What does this fold into?
Amino acid sequence: MEGSKGVVLLNCFVSPFGNRVRIALTKKGVEHEVTAENMAQKSALLLASNPIHGKVPVLLVAGKPICESQVILEFIDEAFSTTGEQLLPTDPYARAQARFWVAYVDAKIPACAPKIWQSPKGAPAVEEGKKEMLVALKTLEAELGEKPYFAGESLGYADVALVTFAPWFLTYERLAGFSIAEECPVLTAWAARCADENECVAKSLPDPEAVFQFVGGMRKHFGLE
Amino acid sequence: MEGSKGVVLLNCFVSPFGNRVRIALTKKGVEHEVTAENMAQKSALLLASNPIHGKVPVLLVAGKPICESQVILEFIDEAFSTTGEQLLPTDPYARAQARFWVAYVDAKIPACAPKIWQSPKGAPAVEEGKKEMLVALKTLEAELGEKPYFAGESLGYADVALVTFAPWFLTYERLAGFSIAEECPVLTAWAARCADENECVAKSLPDPEAVFQFVGGMRKHFGLE
It folds into this structure.
């Protein structure tokens, strides 16, 4: 297996889940390769590495696969702990708070976002998805409050989990006809701050226009446009 | 607040999620009180402690709330680590495997189980829920294989996460007309082993007949029977 001695990430460049892993590896200074997966034609390596879900991201460490982005991020924080940078704080209660908000992001955003981008334009599901997304984003905005980052002064676990959805905001806005910047100005400023102040974020996120083009291609493929 | 100096669990006796916390606290020898919540009339304490979801379990530690069972179990493992017993192994890769299977349980079982017990008898959703549940249980059974417990020789994180659904099996079987013992003999033997060999499990699980009665009461309340 190629790269069996190192760290290899199987990813798709638009994946919010895969891009969390890119941020974490970069933040912690872990040397790694990224292998681009075509989700319409999954590689034998992906299917062998994640037989249960067949999804990206998969992190291969010395050839051993780890699946699911939350699981991978916890692994990275534990296995590569000598670089000084940590995603999770040390205090157990603060760790619980970070995990709670990551679980919130994963319970809410992946449930409403596809209603927007996997539905025909103007379908009732699009409006439903928009409403649910605004509830979730405003809840997250209220939790952020006046803090620069979710856990305080620096980029942490919850920031990494949420910020990878920011490149998709443009797509949600165009397809559902609303403005996240107008509805959630604090969260919008936070997303910009994450990229401006953290090279690991800036380097790991796709161009929002490229996401929109990618989604447009998928929508044409599935007869939605 | 009552018990503000100690450890208090807000729970409902049938909750698979809350009962995970009971097992974990008992396994680690953490002194605690359990407060029974009536989910049809949630207490002010529950709503104040978990304003985002309004659900059990909530663990109050010196008055500070922790929500979501996975988050609580990780917290218990980290915060009460002096008793010798741990839910998660120490090796990061083994920890990742345990977390992967807990995430699998939580992605699959809570998605199919309500189709069985929240639908009218004979509805197509019941059959759909049964089929999905058997796929999930057989996948878990294959992962267990010939090991006594998911992580090897002793009760761990994935065991605790799954075994709290075992008292519900009788209800699923009666409502959907199938036998989990026949379909999944290895998993059935594992569930018995968890209770037989671990007092923390035996003491924390409700009687399956009591679960069936409880569910029957809810079904009547919602006009399903």
Chain A has a mean pLDDT of 96. Residues 7-79 of chain A form a domain with the Glutaredoxin fold (CATH 3.40.30.10).
